Amino acid sequence: MRPADDRRADMRRTRPVECASLADPDLKKTVLHALHVELGAKMVPFGGYDMPVQYPAGILAEHNHTRAAAGLFDVSHMGQVTLHGPDAADALETLVPGDIRALKEGATRYSMFTNAEGGILDDLMITNRGDRLFLVVNAGCKEADIAHMRSAIGGRTKIDYHEDRALLALQGPQAATVMARLAPASVAQKFMTFRTADVAGIPCYFTRSGYTGEDGWEISVPADRAVELARAILANPEVKPIGLGARDSLRLEAGLCLYGHDIDTTTTPIEADLQWSISKRRRAEGGFPGAARIRKELAEGPARKRVGILPEGRAPAREGTEIVDASGAKVGTVTSGGFGPSVNGPVCMGYVQAALASPGTSLGLVVRGKTLPARVVGMPFTPHRYFRG
Amino acid sequence: MAELRFTKDHEWIRVADGDTCEVGISDFAQGQLGDVVFVELPEVGKTIAKGGQAAVVESVKAASDIYAPVSGSVVAVNDALTGEPGLVNTDPTGKGWFFKIKASNTAEFQDLMDQAAYDAFVKSQG
Lengths: 389, 126
What we know:
By secondary structure, chain A is of the alpha+beta class. Chain A is built from eleven helices and 20 strands.
């Protein structure tokens, strides 16, 4: 048994454990690393960090537990950044197509750094904290993102990279039960809003957001108290630790993009079906990198589009799988694919020619030389259960 | 129960009836893969050379190829795995068998490891 050759791209994302023993001295560790090992995690490289891909329960059980109860994720590898000062929103708007000026204090929004061609440099969460903006960016992109901001807007806003903070995500339908115990201030909080309050007696700030499609929080905590917070959350009977393996299957079922796979510098936000994140004003005014192409695609439609694809059989179609039309001609590529435990079958997303992007369109997926029937479907595959109050 | 022999790629083979042998993956291999969600079995009648790709096993994480431990032709496949691929995890050397192969050259068995040698091999892999 060896990794299938045409699956190499996928193996880079969640490398098999037999490779992980070849310890990479350059791999960084989050402050929770020793706790993961203590909990029996299998550790793999991800985004430059040695991260837990799964705990002894396994990916299926962890996925299902998160959908049924609550899961705790270490996402401390992600970058936490603050932009200070009254000019921060206007400055950031020169780098992202999101409407940051209209972002109310205490509200969080999803956007992306674009390049001059309209490609995506990274996707990120932005929170208005009144006198500052709080950003969460991807682990693998954070150095480049910070360098990009320093060079482009460093003269307009003071940029702080919080290497002294960890980030924990608590996700699932019972996350609210747990948070009500540990942080009463969270009870009335709505999806995509921010609070500053103690969690289990530890000073934190947290957004009601996540990457699973479930209700939940992302909690920023001083690094030197992160283990204490993780243990306090795990002490609740509803909560189990969840690794990156289940994080990937959860976000795939939720239809959420993974940077470097579903979106990158070659995909625009419009091709990626993220036009909802660009407000009327930003569409009208432009003023962000790649605005010419993005506005053209908004007006005329993109040449290709990211869609959900449901294989009709049981065989998963992985990243890199060729998508063909009824005549067998290549019309696109799968960018994320695998088994969806809550769907109880294979699910994938990928880019197809715009004419073939409507739900219900029949497509073929070329898996190991055979064309398997599939169809375009709306996403998410598993309904979102966010708390909108 | 007949003795199991192992490959370095973590397949096992068991002589079940003369030169007809069951093939599967080891307990170590299923543990490395994690939850198996799909198995693609060879067609009955297919001839495979030793080391040739014979089947595919997919976990939530990734797909892996299963190789023929010896040369021969496929005489049966375990259809139970289609509906219940998790048998590979729960009973890897029993109900989780993949296919039966009629060995064309029993001398090839000499190249395979017995349980003790395989256990030592797994240990040496760290």
